[in-house]
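FAQ

Q: What does a record look like?
A: Structure on top, sequence underneath. For example:
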């Protein structure tokens, strides 16, 4: 490898190491061909001379959990769904810990749910019961302590005289 390439690689690794964040992405899960609704965050939780340990959370939303996984991930729901699960897979925990799901409706905090994490790869979830008035844009942020390790967004459409599904789109038109 040429010297310039080595220096460039070193700089990229050094920036990732010192900022504590490696990547943020929205992608397709190529192993199962399903959409990943949330964003992935990586946070440095341990630094040593030989390695850096990363903690991150994958976030997905669904209306049913089967075998500790989302039955069908989506980012658009109607109030008729009755409940929405925020499924989170935590990767990289080095000990028993706690995460928090912060649920926001239209930019305002709605609920905080504390969940245990007991292994290096741990699947867990919280839920929101839907009723009239719960339509709008939602976001769930996943924290350990004060470090954000994951985030996801979804929309809920009111079905009886409220907003329609096509009126609730993620992001700018």
């Amino acid at each position: 490898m040429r010297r310039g390439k080595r220096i460039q690689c070193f700089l990229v690794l050094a920036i990732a190491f010192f900022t504590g964040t490696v990547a943020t992405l929205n992608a397709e899960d190529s192993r199962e061909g399903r959409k990943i609704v949330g964003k992935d965050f990586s946070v440095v939780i341990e630094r040593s001379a030989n390695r850096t340990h990363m903690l991150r959370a994958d976030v997905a939303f669904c209306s049913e959990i089967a075998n500790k996984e989302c039955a069908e991930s989506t980012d658009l729901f109607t109030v008729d769904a009755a409940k929405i699960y925020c499924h989170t897979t935590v990767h990289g925990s080095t000990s028993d810990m706690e995460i928090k799901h912060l649920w926001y409706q239209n930019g305002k905090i709605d609920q905080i749910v504390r969940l245990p994490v007991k292994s290096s790869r741990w699947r867990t979830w919280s839920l929101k019961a839907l009723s009239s008035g719960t339509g709008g844009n939602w976001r769930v942020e996943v924290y350990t302590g004060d470090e954000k390790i994951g985030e996801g967004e979804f929309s809920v459409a009111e079905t009886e005289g409220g907003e329609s599904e096509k009126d609730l789109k993620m992001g700018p038109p």
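Q: Is there anything notable about this one?
A: Residues 3 and 9 are 10 Å apart (CA to CA).
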